[in-house]
Design a protein that fits this description.
Strand order of the largest sheet: 1-2-3-4-5-6-7-8
Helix content: 40-55%
Distance between the termini: 47 Å
Radius of gyration: 18 Å
Largest sheet: 8 strands, parallel, barrel
């Protein structure tokens, strides 16, 4: 088993860049990582929801992880998304990520057989994985995409395992986050899964966040984190409120296509999403730009 590692800080779940033909643009991925590495981000999540991991082949996933390992500085945490529908496939990808040099694996809940993904199935999946994984495991709760919502009770039970070190919770249920923080072991890390509730999560005891908005507003997300740690709550509250519209824009409203377009505007390479996702139309682009300007992210 791997020793506990610190998950404190702000992380970006980075997009996977594609070229005009739809192939992974590994050179652009490395260039983007170099730019993010100059920001206050504590690390990067590769092959998360914003990385369109569900649209990548197994071979592409491994190749993306290899490029990321070469590009991510060793003082930044490298979190690999290794969640698959079966426990066996998840373990295989986790072992490959470990061999490549990832620092931790984040594992989304299996969801295809949604009605059968109850607490017993989640315990079976994550405990078997944690028993055998060479990497520390971070739970990933994303009910908006999976239809599966890990309960606080299940998370607290899983948190007793020495190789399950934290959770990224994107449900937005701050009450549940507080319940997990209250009952889980003190070395179990809770991370906000969205910038829309970063400040309240931190105020309750979360150690940081893994958030789409951190791709395009890493400094602002970091400042919310830093202000809260320093007890500058009014400054954290004001910045949190200002970041809610941009966060909604690049998540629920415009999603990955909106996030990638915003990256293009900010001097990163966003590029096209992979079909069936499509680009924003002109009206959507105008709306996104207005929101980012109002939020102080775009000039």
């Amino acid at each position: 088993m791997t020793e506990k590692l610190s998950l404190s800080g702000v992380y970006a779940p980075i997009p996977t860049p594609f070229d005009a033909d739809g192939a992974v643009a590994h050179d652009k991925l490395a260039e983007n990582i170099a730019k993010w590495s100059e920001t206050p981000l504590a690390g990067l999540l590769v092959l998360g929801s914003n990385g369109e991991f569900a649209y990548l082949s197994d071979k592409e996933k491994v190749e993306v992880l290899r490029t990321a390992r070469q590009a991510i500085p060793r003082d930044k945490l490298f979190i690999a998304g290794t969640g698959c529908e079966s426990t066996r496939c998840t373990l295989e990808l986790t072992e490959q990520a470990a061999a490549i040099g990832a620092d931790a694996a984040i594992v989304i809940t299996p969801s295809y057989y949604t009605s059968k993904m109850d607490a017993q199935a989640m315990r079976r999946h994550f405990l078997e994985l944690a028993d055998r994984s060479p990497l520390p495991i971070i739970l990933y709760n994303m009910p908006a995409c999976t239809g599966v919502d890990l309960s606080a009770e299940t998370v607290v039970e899983l948190a007793q395992h020495p190789n399950i070190v934290g959770i990224k919770d994107s449900s937005g249920n701050v009450v549940k986050l507080g319940d997990i923080i209250r009952a889980a072991p003190p070395n179990f890390s809770v991370l906000a899964g969205s910038a829309s509730f970063l400040y309240p999560a931190l105020a309750l005891g979360a150690v940081g966040g893994i958030m789409a908005l951190a791709n395009i507003a890493p400094e602002q997300c970091y400042l919310i984190y830093r202000y809260t740690l320093e007890g500058r709550h009014e400054e954290a509250r004001r910045l949190q409120l200002r970041m809610i519209p941009p966060n909604i824009a690049v998540t629920a409203r415009f999603g990955v296509p909106g996030l990638k377009l915003a990256l293009d505007w900010l001097g990163y390479y966003g590029g096209p999403p992979r079909s069936p996702l499509g680009p924003l139309d002109e009206a959507q682009q105008a709306a996104l730009r207005a929101i980012l300007v109002e939020g102080g992210i775009l000039a």
